[in-house]
Specification:
By secondary structure, this protein is mainly alpha-helical. It has a single domain, classed as MFS general substrate transporter like domains (Growth Hormone, Chain: A), CATH 1.20.1250. Helices cover 78% and strands 0% of the residues. The protein is built from 15 helices and no strands. It has helices spanning 2-9, 16-44, 49-74, 79-102, 108-136, 139-171, 173-183, 190-199, 223-230, 232-258, 264-297, 299-319, 323-347, 354-385, 391-417. The radius of gyration is 21 Å and the shape is globular. 50% of the residues are buried.
């Protein structure tokens, strides 16, 4: 059975235990998030475009503060302590929201705080996971294994919405917070086991995750920001993220308007159904296609694939601007992101050093992402309120942005696929010869 599994999924026998543990880790945290997510999104229909844009602005500010604090703390405390603290802290926070709700303290202000808090959590917990993964596996292993590991994330995103779909009407939104809090404790014992496998079964004694054994980073809490702005490679990754976020924002704003007439539990159920459709499609793709895309077609094609599909999808929406077409594009976009784009994007960080991986990556994953949320939210609000654009106009603008997104993805993938790939050498650049001043 083990051999069959290894042959089917392109996992080497000595990598199986680490892959399973990585799978379990991301499954549980994504299940926890996708129980919290429909509840969060059910609140959004109560607010105007401008009010929601202000909440996204608040999310960006708190994300920047959280990443700065993270950068300061990780310079002084071992990573194997930081990871359990992060997940334990979020578990306690959601337990706190549960207590507030049970004691009758829930209000529109609490709902807004919850919305912002879940939005910060949404990116931060996953960034920590993929930071660990990009230091645990080497470049060749990441091409084969990240698709399989991403399947754990996708199945978690199936389990979470399924739990909401089956139980939220009888149990209620509030009680689901307890389930999420418990799930967030599962990764804590997994961290040490994976670190032990890194230098033994995985054969990566020189991997960049030695922070788990006590090595420390530079003490500058803002070095993640400075490295980002000084590295063309990281800036291209940030641009890729910003273009992706635009797709997400446009679709999210359109869909939430349709759900405004439903009560909150039914809205949560509707969002959960979309999540469920997305994640069933993504699970099959990640399990059987992603590693084959990356190893056979290359990362350049893999990163450009979903953006090109989005160009076609937005054209369909422009021609047929109805809810079904918008929801269909949303399902394809999110499934493609979980199964194809996100694993390929995480492969890019196997080229960078520890300081970049542990400090700049959370800046990109959280601050740049949420900054993109803010910019594109206000951009969307301007298009709809100032220029009076309807869905057709929005779709035409989005199709053009998706085309640029595809070009950026292809460029980044070519950089990664090049035989002498490093973050300092762009694709097509000459490889320095000994004695040419590059010693």
């Amino acid at each position: 059975m083990s051999k069959l599994l290894c042959d089917l999924l392109k996992v080497e026998p000595h990598e199986l235990k680490a892959t399973i543990l990585s799978f379990v880790w991301v499954f549980t945290v994504m299940a926890a998030y996708f129980i919290l997510r429909p509840v969060r999104d059910s609140f959004s229909s109560d607010w105007t475009d401008a009010e929601l844009s202000w909440l996204w602005t608040s999310t960006f500010v708190f994300s920047a503060l959280a990443v700065s604090l993270y950068g300061a703390v990780i310079s002084h405390i071992r990573f194997r302590i930081i990871v359990p603290v992060i997940y334990g802290f979020f578990a306690l926070a959601f337990l706190g929201f549960f207590v507030i709700g049970k004691t009758g303290g829930a209000s529109d202000l609490v709902n807004r705080v919850y919305y912002v808090w879940v939005s910060v959590f949404a990116l931060f917990h996953l960034s920590v996971f993929w930071t660990f993964m990009s230091g645990l596996y080497n470049k060749e292993q990441s091409k084969r294994l990240f698709g399989v590991i991403a399947t754990g994330a996708i199945l978690g995103t199936v389990a979470g919405p399924l739990a909401v779909e089956l139980f939220i009407v009888d149990v209620g939104s509030l009680n689901m917070l307890l389930v999420s809090a418990v799930l967030l404790l599962v990764p804590i014992p997994i961290v040490g086991q994976l670190d032990g496998l890194r230098s033994t079964a995985l054969g990566n004694p020189d991997g960049q995750s030695d922070l788990l054994r006590g090595s420390k980073l530079g003490v500058n809490p803002f070095s993640g920001f400075t490295r980002l702005v000084s590295s063309p490679y990281l800036l291209w990754i940030a641009a890729f993220i910003l273009l992706y976020v635009t797709m997400n924002t446009f679709l999210y704003y359109e869909i939430r308007k349709v759900f405004a007439d439903l009560d909150r539990d039914l809205r949560a159920q509707a969002w959960a159904r979309i999540d469920l459709a997305v994640n069933l499609l993504a699970a099959f793709t990640a399990l059987f296609a992603t590693s084959r895309f990356a190893t056979r077609l290359g990362v350049a094609t893999t990163l450009a694939l979903v953006p090109l599909i989005m160009v076609a999808g937005w054209i369909v929406v422009a021609v047929s601007p109805v809810l079904a077409s918008v929801v269909g594009v949303q399902i394809v976009r999110r499934a493609g992101n979980y199964a194809v784009t996100r694993p390929a994007r995480e492969m890019l960080f196997t080229l960078v050093d520890s300081e970049t991986r542990f400090k700049s990556k959370p800046v990109i994953d959280t601050v740049v992402y949420r900054g993109g949320d803010v910019a594109t939210a206000w951009f969307y609000t301007m298009l709809t309120t100032v220029f009076g654009m309807g869905l057709t106009g929005i779709a035409i603008v989005a199709a053009a942005i998706a085309g640029v997104w595809a070009a950026v993805g292809a460029y980044l993938g070519r950089w990664f696929d090049s035989d002498a790939a490093t973050p300092d050498r762009a694709p097509g650049a000459a490889v320095p010869e000994p004695g040419d001043g590059a010693r």
